[in-house]
Amino acid sequence: METGGLPSWFWGGAAFVFGAFWGSFANVCIFRVPWGISIVWPSSRCPTCLSPIRAVDNVPVASWVLLGARCRDCGDRIAARYPLVELLVAFLSLALFMRSPSLSAYAVWFAFGASLVVLSFIDIDHWLLPDAITYPGIAAGLLFSLLQPVTPSGVASSPLDSLLGAALGGGLLWVVALAARLATGRLGFGGGDVKLMAMVGAFLGYKAILPVVFLSAAQGSVIGIALLFARRREPEAAGQRDGPIGKTGPGDEDDFVPTRHHMPFGPFVALGALEYLFFGPAIFDAITGLILKR
C-alpha cells in the first residue's frame, strides 16, 4: 500500500491507534445493541453508577491502566475485557493495513473484521447474533463487492461471487438446521448463525463457504471437547444476564434454545472467516487436498 512518503511505522502506528478507538466503540456496540439501546446517545457511562465517562478516562487501554481498572466515580471494577476488545481490534486493524493492497480494500476488510468481533462477543454473552448487524452486514458485503476489494491473501470476489456466497452461506446452514430439526425436533443452529454465514459469503464470495464451515466446525469441536473434559460451565442463554435499567432482556430472534453442552457457534464462524480472509488460497488448497486424498 502507498504510504505517501511517510515511513511505514508511522502509518502502522496510525492504523493501530485507529483500530483501538474503534475497539472502544465496539465495546459500546457489544453492550448496547442486544438491549436495543442507541449506540450514539447517551454518551458512554459506568454501567454500575451510570456516571458519564470523562473524555480523559475514555482513551483506549491507557485509561483502563491509569485508572487501575476501576471507575473514577464509584470505584467499581472495570472488566479486563474492555481493553482486550480494544487491543484485538487494534491488532486486526494493523494486520489488515499491512496486508491490504489498497486503502479502499483496508476499509472494506476492517469494517468486516470489526463487525465479526462485535458479533462474536455478543454471541458469547447472549447467544444472539442481532439482525441489526447481520442484515446490514449482508447488504454491505453485496455493495462492497462492486469494488471487488482484494483480500490480504490476494483473492477478489465479483458481485456474482458475492451474491452466490450469501445464498450458499445462508442456505447451507439453513439446510443443516432444518435437517437437525427433522431428525431431533431441535434446531441445529440459530437463525443468527444462518444470517452470519450469509454475511460471510457476501463479503468473501462463495468459494469461502466450505473452508469457513470446515474451519469453524473443526475448531469449535476441539474447544467443545476441551471444555467438556474441563467440566466448565458454558455461557448463559439469551435473556439471563442482568442488563441496563428498564431493560428486561435482549431480543431473541428465533426459537433456538441451547442445551447445557452447546457453545455459541458465531465466534468460530468469525474466526474461520478471518483465517480465510488472511490465508484463503492456502486454506482452500489444504482442505481440497485433504478431501481428494480420501
Determine the strand fraction and express it as a percent band.
under 5%
- Number of helical runs? 9
Mean pLDDT: 86
Q: How many angstroms does the end-to-end distance come to?
A: 41 Å
Given as residue ranges, the uncertain stretches (5+ residues, pLDDT < 50) are: 234-241
Morphology: globular
Helix and strand content put the structural class at mainly alpha
Number of strands: 0
SSE run: HHHHHHHHH
Structure overview:
- With 294 residues, this protein is mainly α.
- The protein is built from nine helices and no strands.
- Helix 4 crosses helix 9 and helix 5 packs antiparallel against helix 6.
Feature tags:
294 residues, mainly alpha, globular, 60% helix
Describe the structure concisely.
With 294 residues, the protein is mostly helical. The chain is 60% helix and 0% strand. Helix 4 runs antiparallel to helix 5, helix 6 (159-184) runs antiparallel to helix 7 (191-204) and helix 7 crosses helix 9 (266-293).
Give the SSE map.
Layout lengths: L7 H25 L29 H5 L14 H19 L3 H24 L4 H14 L14 H26 L6 H14 L4 H22 L35 H28 L1
Helix pairs in contact: 1-3, 1-4, 3-4, 4-5, 4-9, 5-6, 5-7, 6-7, 7-9, 8-9
